[in-house]
C-alpha cells in the first residue's frame, strides 16, 4: 500500500515529482529492507500518458536526507482542508524522527 505525501513540479515543463509513503521497500542508498519508507517517482507527461523518468526508494533516515537535498521544501499533500495538511506534516515530521 502506498499513500501520496506530496507532489511538486520540477523546472522542466510537464515533469513532476510524486512522493509516496510505502510499505516494505528496499532503500536505494543503503540497500536494506525497511518496513516503511518513501517512494519517489519523477515522471514526464506526454499527451495522455506519463513516462517514468526516475523511480527511487528510501528508508527513514535516507528519506530525511532526500527531503533536505530536494530544495529544502517539506512534502505536503494537496488538500483543501488546512487541518488535514497540518496533521499530515506533523505525522511526517514524527515519522522521519524515528529513524
List keywords for this structure.
2 helices; alpha+beta; four-stranded antiparallel sheet; globular
Topology:
Elements: E1 2-9, E2 15-26, E3 33-46, E4 49-58, H1 60-69, H2 82-97
Antiparallel strand pairs: 1-2, 2-3, 3-4
Shape: globular
Fraction in helix? 25-40%
Estimated radius of gyration: 14 Å
Strand order of the largest sheet: 1-2-3-4
Measure the end-to-end span: 21 Å
- Largest β-sheet summary: 4 strands, antiparallel
- Would you list the SSEs in sequence order as H and E? EEEEHH
Total count of helical runs of at least 4 residues:
2
Count of separate structural domains: 1
E-strand count:
4
Helix/strand-derived category reads alpha+beta
- On the 0-100 scale, what is the average pLDDT? 78
Are there runs of 5+ residues with pLDDT below 50, and where? 77-85
Descriptive account of the structure:
It is a single chain. This protein is an alpha+beta fold and 99 residues long. The chain has one domain (2-97). The protein contains two helices and four strands, in the order ββββαα. The chain has helices at residues 60-69, 82-97, and strands spanning 2-9, 15-26, 33-46, 49-58. A four-stranded antiparallel β-sheet has the order 1-2-3-4. A hairpin with a 2-residue loop joins strand 3 (33-46) and strand 4. 16% of the residues are buried.
